[in-house]
């Protein structure tokens, strides 16, 4: 029986616990991804690390499965590639919204929004991500995952932000190859079934999957959601374009 792994990681309770890496990636350039943020969730069960994406100066997009029912607060580290160092801004968020129909098995509606306690000023290393159009597809596009997740299922960790190029797999092909995952139009598949190698892993959850849009801009097309032992089969992302209505509404009301 195949086991699907969500990609959050348990940490010791601290400001920035052990770093985690992307599989098959390389260090990202300083300020290369100014919209990515590092999150530490303080919960009744311990502290969990995830990634997130800054959508404006008040809101961070992440995965619903990063939240524990006992979540008390979230440390948001903005504007750094090293998750052991304080970035341009470090804030503690206590307001968020998890999709009301989130389901872990099968994984559905894996999307959430965090509201920061105060607006953050933008600069060279802090900026909002561009959003895709509602319903926009990315099959065949060369995209980039970024995060602080492990380099492999049983591999050691790093503190430095990594990124990796990953093609978007044709959706129908991915649904056939990963029938056990019960994929729908709200999912995006990234990776290479033939050669493997590049993937996300534990600790990357909630982080961005950047793709070129039809207008030429790089947009946050996906939210890192789950996979099977990291580099086996494709990595699965929540489709941002599928949830544009939910995102737009939540940006207005949260």
How would you describe what is shown here?
Helix content is 7%, strand content 36%. By secondary structure, it is mostly beta strands. The protein has two domains: 36-128 and 245-252, Trypsin-like serine proteases (Thrombin, subunit H, Beta Barrel); 129-241, Trypsin-like serine proteases (Thrombin, subunit H, Beta Barrel). Strands 1, 3, 13, 14, 15, 16, 17 and 18 form an eight-stranded antiparallel beta sheet that branches. The termini are far apart. Residues 1-16 form the signal peptide. Pfam families: Trypsin (PF00089).
What topology emerges from the helices and strands here?
Layout: E1 5-6, E2 9-11, E3 26-27, E4 36-43, E5 46-54, E6 59-62, E7 73-78, E8 89-93, E9 95-98, E10 103-104, E11 107-108, E12 112-115, E13 142-147, E14 162-167, H1 171-177, E15 187-190, E16 208-212, E17 218-228, E18 232-239, H2 244-253
Antiparallel strand pairs: 1-17, 2-5, 3-14, 4-5, 4-7, 5-6, 6-12, 7-8, 9-12, 10-11, 13-14, 13-16, 15-18, 16-17, 17-18
Short description:
7% of the residues lie in helices and 36% in strands. The protein is mostly beta strands. The N and C termini lie far apart (40 Å).
> How many strand units?
18
The major beta sheet can be summarized as:
8 strands, antiparallel
For the record, the count of structural domains works out to 2
Number of helical runs? Answer: 2
Structural class: mainly beta
> On the 0-100 scale, what is the average pLDDT?
85
Q: For the record, what is the CATH homologous superfamily label of the largest domain? A: Trypsin-like serine proteases
Which architecture name of the largest domain does CATH use? Beta Barrel
The CATH topology of the largest domain is given as Thrombin, subunit H
Distance between termini?
40 Å
User: Secondary-structure element order, as H and E?
Assistant: EEEEEEEEEEEEEEHEEEEH
Q: Rg from C-alpha positions?
A: 16 Å
Spans of at least 5 consecutive residues whose pLDDT stays below 50 are: 1-5, 9-22
């Amino acid at each position: 029986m195949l086991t699907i792994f969500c990609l959050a990681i348990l940490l010791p309770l601290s400001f920035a616990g052990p770093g985690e890496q992307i599989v098959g990636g390389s260090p990202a350039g300083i300020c290369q991804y100014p919209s990515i943020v590092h999150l530490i969730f303080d919960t009744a069960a311990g502290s969990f690390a995830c990634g997130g994406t800054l959508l404006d100066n008040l809101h961070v997009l992440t995965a619903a499965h990063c939240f524990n029912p006992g979540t008390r607060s979230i440390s948001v580290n903005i504007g750094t590639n090293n998750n052991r160092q304080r970035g341009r801004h470090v804030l503690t968020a206590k307001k968020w919204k998890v999709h009301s129909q989130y389901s872990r098995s099968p994984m559905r509606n894996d999307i959430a929004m965090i509201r920061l306690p105060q607006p953050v000023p933008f600069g060279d290393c802090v900026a909002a991500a561009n959003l895709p159009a509602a319903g926009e597809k990315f099959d065949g596009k060369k995209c980039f995952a970024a995060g602080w997740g492990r380099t492999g299922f049983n591999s050691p960790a790093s503190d430095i932000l990594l990124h990796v190029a990953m093609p978007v797999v044709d959706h129908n092909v991915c649904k056939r190859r990963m029938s056990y995952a019960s994929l729908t139009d709200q999912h995006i598949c990234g990776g290479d079934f033939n050669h493997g190698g590049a993937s996300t892993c534990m600790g990357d959850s909630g982080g961005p999957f950047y793709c070129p849009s039809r207008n030429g801009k790089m947009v946050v097309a996906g939210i890192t959601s789950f996979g099977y032992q990291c580099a086996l089969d494709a990595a699965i992302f929540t489709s941002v374009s599928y949830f544009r209505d939910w995102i737009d509404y939540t940006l207005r009301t949260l």
